[in-house]
Amino acid sequence: MSVSKHTKTLLMAFGAALALAGCGNGADKVVSPGEGAFPPAPPTTPPPTTPPPTTPPPTGGPAADCPTGLANVGTVANGTLRACQLPNLITGNLVLRKLAGTIYVINGQVNVGEDLGGDATKPIAGRQAGILTIEPGVKLFGSAGADSLVINRGSQIYAEGSSTDPIIFTSRASVEGQTNIDSMGQWGGLVILGRAPISACPGSTVSGTPECQAAIEGISNVFYGGNAPGDNSGRLRYVRVMYSGFQVSPDNELNGISFGGVGSATTVDHIQVHNSSDDGIEIFGGSVNLRYVVLTGNDDDSLDTDTGWSGAAQFGIVIQRAGGGDRGFEWSAIRRTPYSTPKVSNFTLVLRENGGAGIMLNQGTQATIINSVVSRPTGSKELLAIQDTDTKGTFQSVYFSGAKAFLDTRAETDFKAGTNNSVGASTLTNTFVNGANENAVPAFSGTTGVSPFFQSVSYIGAVRNSSDTWWQGWTCGLTADTACR
In this structure, which long-range contacts are made by residues 67-73, counting pairs with CB atoms below 8 Å and at least 24 apart in sequence? Predict the structure, then answer.
């Protein structure tokens, strides 16, 4: 994502709504019943347990019908799964249960709650919040670029899978077994919006106030930002998003997961984005923290940050596929305070031969990268580029391996100013597991001083050795026997 794109986004924040034109298919014509069919409840705690569906699941084949409030739109996967379509507006509580022979459908823009505005102490009168809870093992799909799940400001999602039963957001083509290693852009994506401060303030408004808000990319007339750094948009745990991403218009795209103004009380851990046609994850401002992140095969940047993100991320695997992928990290902000202050620890980036800079620090960014590994096994593109004088990188215990480490002396100076940073040969095994050279680098001991979110560790990189298995079971595509489907 270029800097010019974010300038355009800011200028459009209170302008005309973005059009999602020409994205639909036949499924877009299906009316989604059940809007407003769920009892209202404040979005502060997970919803209570709801009774099971009245129709018991069959012992094999598709379920006979869908739970109350969801539309039965037929079957998919050669008639083996009942397709149950979500309403376009979810208010109150909705629980998506793991039911035999059932899969859930995202058709068009599915909103969880109405936008309550940027003031956490005074929600917009007359609007309703929503809570969406998704049980472990549930699978949802979209069929077209306009199909997206949007969690609006003041509402929450509780999508909590497990290491053996992750929650999967994917495309219909994937459900039908019609994807391959380069499939992408087959539905929209997941968008989570909160009321934490951002830097993309319109006019003379001030960051951290309800008036400092911006329109999120890829969605029509939907906003993020506000006055609550500790805002809570719910929990994402053991979640996989596949084959998403869609270009609504030039420089205006949906990503795998977009976080806009999401606050620090939101829990995000054990998440994978695979083969997004734009960025894997893009974080627009806010203070959300992430832990245990896997980004594979994404066609633009794997982790993109913008508009004043002040959070942290620890333990991440980034692997580009041979056929696509630009930058591993692209971090930027508008040239105004507060600058973006992204902080990452224990990431391993494995870059393709013909991709962009491994790490691009763009304008208005004061970044900290510690205990990490960046490797480009083949190719000559630089591993680190720094955009301008508003931008600075702080590096501690970072190991680079590749034919060209730095774009210029500016990047080299920032890198060498830190402690225990070095450039050498890669000894990574099984693509992303530390070898002798990586484990020889002393770990930076001050991680918790950089961010209280960070755990103290004694090694660099995402995966210390073959016994370090946090990524196993819930991910796909990292090993030959776990192909993404």
Answer: 67/97, 67/99, 68/37, 69/34, 69/37, 69/38, 69/94, 70/34, 70/104, 71/30, 71/31, 71/32, 71/33, 71/34, 73/27, 73/30, 73/105, 73/107
